[in-house]
Amino acid sequence: MNKLELAFRKEICEQMRGIWNITIHTENDLNPGVPDLSYVFKMPGHETGWLELKAIQDITPYHFHVEPSQHRWIDAHCDLVPVCFLLAVGDMFYLVGGGNHHRLSNPIEPEELKKCSIASGERRYLRSVLHSVLRPLTWRHKS
């Protein structure tokens, strides 16, 4: 994880404080490819969601480095659990569903990234956007 990603992880933890219980995953030897962060909304009826974090400078086309083990983990789990990429580019963020992870393997232009994103916006709005977009993805109504 580079310095930009470490700062982005800290920003997410601070912004989502009080809404999520967050676990940071740093030991990739035990489960290669596991996303950087898992979260659970602090309200009943939600399952764990997973976020792979990437942060880069705002230089186009965008180059996100996705490890082969990350592709394998997401291929194996994206139909079973909510998993997304949360990408920081300068002052902007993009939330990309796990099913689109292969689109991040090659350089991507900003407009193409926006098209394949579930949500995007200015990073100062991360809290409200993540809350409204990820809540329905993790909702598991118990009958």
Write a structural description:
- With 143 residues, this protein is an alpha+beta fold.
- The chain has a single domain (3-138), classed as Trna Endonuclease, Chain: A, domain 1 (3-Layer(aba) Sandwich).
- It contains 4 helices and 6 strands; from the N terminus they run αβββαββαβα.
- The protein has helices at 3-15, 68-77, 110-115, 126-138; strands spanning 20-24, 37-41, 49-56, 83-89, 92-97, 119-122.
- The chain has a 6-stranded mixed beta sheet with strand order 1-2-3-4-5-6.
- β3, α2 and β4 form a beta-alpha-beta unit.
- The longest helix is centred in the N-terminal third of the chain and has 13 residues, at 3-15.
- The mean pLDDT is 94.
Give a short synopsis of this structure.
It contains four helices and six strands, in the order αβββαββαβα.
Looking at this protein, list some descriptive labels.
six-stranded mixed sheet; Trna Endonuclease, Chain: A, domain 1; 4 helices; 29% helix; 143 residues; globular; alpha+beta
